[in-house]
Amino acid sequence: MASGQVEKRVKYKSSLKDPGTPGFLRIREAMLFFVPTDPKSDSKLKVLTQNIKSQKYTKEASNKPPWLNMTNKQGRSYIFEFENYADMQTCRDFITKALAKCEEEPTKPAVSTSSEQLNIADLEMRFKLLRENSELQRLHKQFVESKVLTEDEFWATRKKLIGKDSIRKSKQQVGLKSMMVSGIKPSTDGRTNRVTFNLTPEIIFQIFAEKPAVRQAFINYVPSKMTEKDFWTKYFRAEYLYSTKNTAVAAAEAAEDEELAVFLKPDEILAREARQKIRRVDPTLDMEADQGDDYTHLMDHGIQRDGTMDVIEPQNDQFKRSLLQDLNRHAAVVLEGRSIDVDSEDTRIVAEALTRVKQVNKADGDTTKEANQERWERMSRVAGMEDLQAPQNFPLAPLSIKDPRDYFESQQGNVLNVPRGAGALKRNVHEAYGLLKESILEIRATGLCVPLIKPDVSFDVFRSLTQTISTAKNIIGKNPRESFLDRLPKSTKDEVLHHWASIQELLRHFWSSYPITTTYLHIKVGKLKDAMSNTYSQLEAMKESVQSDLRHQVSLLVRPMQQALDAAFQHYEADLQRRKAKSGGGERPNGYV
Amino acid sequence: MPQVRIIAKNFMDMVASLPAIKLDKLYNNVFICEAILRSLPPLAKKYVLQMLYITDPVPATMMEEWVLADGASKHRVAIDRLIQLRIFSEISDRKKGTSYNLNPTFQNNLQKHIISGGVLPREPMNSDNAIKLPSLQELETYALKQWECFLLQLINSGHGEKLTGISSSMMKIFQRGLMSQRDRDGPRLTESGFQFLLMDTNSQLWYIIREYISNAEERDVDPADLISFLLELSFHVTGEAYNLNTLTDVQRNTLKDLADLGLVKLQQGRKDSWFIPTKLATNLSVSLADSSVRKEGFVVMETNFRMYAYSTSKLQCEILRLFARIEYQLPNLIACAITKESLYNAFDNGITSDQIITFLQQNSHPRCADRVPSIPENVTDQIRLWEADLKRIEMTQAHFYDEFPSKDVFEAACDFAREWGGLLWEDSKRMRLVVKSEIHNQMREFLHTQSK
Amino acid sequence: MASVASKLYSDDVSLLVLLLDTNPFFWSTTSITFSQFLSHVLAFLNAVMGLNQLNQVVVIATGYSSCDYIYDSSSTSSNHGTGNGMPALFSSLLEKLEDFVTKDEELSKEKNVSKDRVASSLLSGSLSMALCYIQRVFRSGHLHPQPRILCLQGSQDGPEQYVAVMNSIFSAQRLMVPIDSCYIGTQNSAFLQQASYITGGVHHKPQQLDGLFQYLTTIFATDLHSRGFVQLPKPVGVDFRASCFCHKKTIDMGYICSVCLSIFCEHHKKCTTCGSVFGQSKLDDVSSVSDKKRKSPDT
User: Fold this and answer.
1) Which structural domains are found in chain B, ordered by start?
2) Nearest CA in chain A to C163
């Protein structure tokens, strides 16, 4: 493509209402960046082209500004407002082409998985890991950047690291505040009687979640019957009436205004849910379960909202709610958490989404008949007597160790037939036993040999044992907690540790490549071997460079590393020989076996 | 804290305090070497064993190589002990540093012991002998009874009938330190006497044996001989009879005393005399403080501070009386109560709450001993609290100073007193201070110089 | 003042279970004679008994076709000499040992297994017996000495005992009984190395067999309590190799049944122990294909 990249001045909006952040949109074939002009802004954006599902845009004819709305595969949308329609179209066409390319891409065999194909979250995770772990970063730098390992090979052995983090990330969801809605105190200006309530989307969400009746009313009335503003005004009027505890006024106003009455009446939807919940309680589980268990909808249960126990005219009962009711309801909602994933400013969308969720939740319990049936089944299952029932067949295959003895002394029959000394043995059986018995007789007759042990031998043994102890001590250090490593100069210690880590990494890849079945592995092993011999010589160099008094210890430390490397080299050579021998004369096309 | 804490545990301290020649003489006996080896701390045992066949001196640095950082102190204790007992001899060389040698007599004897075992110089009874030997059970009862009689006589020697054959002069020796001999109201138990009674049998035995040995010279007996005989005794087999004919006169006399203590049982045959060591004797060389033969407990302590002791023993009753009020005595049961008064009585006699609690724990009835804790917690707490009650006030002789001429002088005086560690109280507002009387003189001098 | 008596003996009281290798085939090839060896061992046992009156020693003979208890200090009542100038320990042990060897010989003749077995001793058997004994001591009451096992082994490992030995080792580990091992043979014993490593015991291979007593007293006489303060020799490496179940070979690399963890030295279609059917590995596919390919020109 001639122009590999398009760059336009745009405003990025995270939602429709967002006034937008000015910045640049840069589109490449594979990726789409948004860089805000204000460097402090955090709305930097990176979207992989292949993740874009669709794009919508405003028509030139309409009087809306030139918007381009892209939705990614996760359902998130990005809105960009361009300065003019021409810009927008350029971008739109570019993205369309890129998208088309992306479509084709998957049909091609995925020979090499390029890092660009990884989803962005993974990449970010990797960067994060590298940033946090300097050890990892060093290894990464050493091997990936020097092309000994590819990026993927490097990470393939560390799936756990990535996996662990990503799980943690995805599961986390912002919950609701535990503050109650009723805790939103209105602000008053001292002069007039005006009472002002401040509403935020969060509060609206909470109100909807806690009060299904309000939610329902919103769906019913807004915007057909009244504006959103009017709706909330009414709602808070009702709340205000509650808070004044003036039930008479509440009753009067409810009689006048039927919409207002909706807010003041006890929540019918909640009551229904509660009844359903009670119905679902297994009678075999709790024989006393009845409506009394759900206190929320029992009138005159619990204390009033602020603890006063004023006399209530019975007919106005329904306009009162107890504090306990509110608390319970609120607690239930908070515990449930944010059940929908709508991140919209549009109140109506929120309301509808919540209703949908609720309906789905209830769907199973809705039809009483079904519920009853289910209950009966459950009861019979619980109360069923095991010995009267047909045996249950679980889909499993028992582990069949035919004869447990197999495990312990498996197959004496095919004990090895190595003729090692067998003949000699047979001849000697009698002789050997004879010798043994002779020895015993001898000692019985003459007692223990005196002297048991020569003093100089004894001292020698003790000295040599002390020697072993002291050399062992030198390696571990005088104090088991203080290792020998700590006595090395810092740079040497770091170097040793680093070599150790890198050798581990290399060996892991090296051994996991065996047996070599593809050309790719063959090349990889070659690369690894070169890197290892490189490290080997570095180890040698380090040994030389270290101070003479520490050299012995360092070489002891280095020895196991070198041994491991030697083993790898040996295996490599042996494998190479074998391969050569096998392939013999004819070079086969797919010659890696 | 009572200064007269009885250290009855360590017999080996006594051995160690013997003069060098006597020690070397002791090591001529195989059994003593063995007994000494057993009494050593674990690390010291290991050192002896690993040097058993080494004749060259072993450098100290070589031994230290084996010691881990955690064991440094144990190592030092072990080496010190070995040198103290003259098992190790230290050779200091300017070039090679310190090195150790095993005492050759000790080494030879131990080698001999390990290879051929030792043969006791006593003649064991032949199995065809007609004399019926007591069973182990009988022997143990005998030993305990004998020991109890002895203890009883020990504590009420003044007005008791003579129960054992121990001469009163000997008894006097044992009572030294345990009883105060006042002419007017007869002998009374001292603090250490009370502590002695509350100790377990093994510790008591050691205490008595120690006294017996330290007194040996007064009876014209060589303590080293006595020690060697006692140690040898512990290698005899419990319940077997041994002929007296191989013993010296001194040993025979000793044996009679030991029979009174319950360490051996003497048996007269038609022709020969025999002695049968009891468990008390064979346990003598066990280096452990808590003997493996613990007798069954008998005390049931209830949460209401009542105590039931299933015992017929007069001695037990006397011991309980030390800190409890005996309410009534049935043929096999003593019912008593722990009260504030009874405990104060005990505290006055110098018995500590820990000793009482330990005694109760060690002697609790098997049914209670299984419980945790075996003594109800409210009782142990209360015993401790009552003891703490007595210690609320501490008296210190002091001098009071006031009317200082100036703040500076007052502060200088305070600092001076503080430096000497004698400042008890100060009131800087009214310029008064209280100082321990030990430094009164210094204080006076100081103030004198200040006023000049 | 004596403290409250604990339920355990004081620190250094130990129960030593000694496994004595009496394999005739081994002893007919060694530089020191069996009687010399016995001298060292007996002296060592007597020394251990002498360290503490409450110390206990049990000796189990590890024969070629059987094993048996040959000495138990707790059941031998009399401590002192029965004639011959020899301690009771020695005489009763030697007597039993002689009986044992006679019996072992008969068993070996009966079975006549010698021709297809490596000349290894029945280590697994004696280990199990030692553990049984210790288990009994544990259950007998609350006052017991601290047990440890010492293997005095000379003959080589019997790979056919691999599973049994490993099981014993793991039970010892669970009982927290350390297995010390002193290997006096010429090769190296992977079993003993692993046993000591896993159970936290000491493994040592003496260099000079005429100084065996010195090794025994310096290293293996150390009671468990003192091991907290003393550094004992540690082997440089441990031979962790396993034996395969199919041919009883000691192997470095092999196949493991993913169901029952049986080890095989070659690929099977089905696990011979538990009967699980193995899937075909890719590797196997490739190699078999190539094998065919390779063979076809030949035929």
Assistant:
1) 11-116 (1.10.10), 136-282 (no CATH), 299-390 (no CATH), 398-451 (3.30.70.2610)
2) A408
